[in-house]
Amino acid sequence: MCLVVHARAACVLTTRECAHADLYDHYNGGNPNQPSGGNPWILCTAGLADIYYRAAASHAAAGFIKFTALNEDFFTQALDYAQLTRAYHRRQEAGADATGPLVVEETDSDTLLRAAIASHTTVFASGVQVSGKESMVVESTDLLTHALSALTLSGDGILIRLRYHVAGNDFHLPEELNKDTGVSQGAHDLTWSYGTVIGAMASRAKATAAGAATQ
Known about the structure:
By secondary structure, this protein is α+β, with helices and mostly antiparallel strands. The chain has one domain. It is built from 5 helices and 6 strands, in the order H-E-H-H-E-E-E-H-E-E-H. The protein has a 4-stranded antiparallel sheet. A two-stranded antiparallel ribbon has the order 5-6.
């Protein structure tokens, strides 16, 4: 199964600005530079968004997140992607030139969450658990809410990117996008492309219903 890819195209968001821009599509053990193209699949792209939304829903229902060495990179990346998505929304709301650079901001909550992730802290709605003291929870900014928001916004960033590439084709969902131009190619209306996008949207609804914020 192929992995998610960034379509390296002339588009609204640059590689740095587009959430999830550095993942490449190739078969396990395959060559991403093979003549067939190694292009991004809608299936896998929407599938990644679905993972973020499901994680948000699961942790919202549990009422806590335990950051560990195993999930540190996942949550750090989600926070980075969320910053990009928030920057994109700010630019759109301000009515600025859609092709202008995004201005990423590191908020106090971002900094606190990044530190909690790096220190493998457990965060609850009421505060954070002190490392090594299982019964002690100290009050702090609501880092759980901020972490859930980061997961949801990461999924949003993926679907925003996908929307950009298919909007000009009346939102028909092909098999894949050309990695150099972002143009649809392969099967024109592929059932599993639609299925995974609809599935991701359903997972987003569950995440927000469970309390995962989107700001």
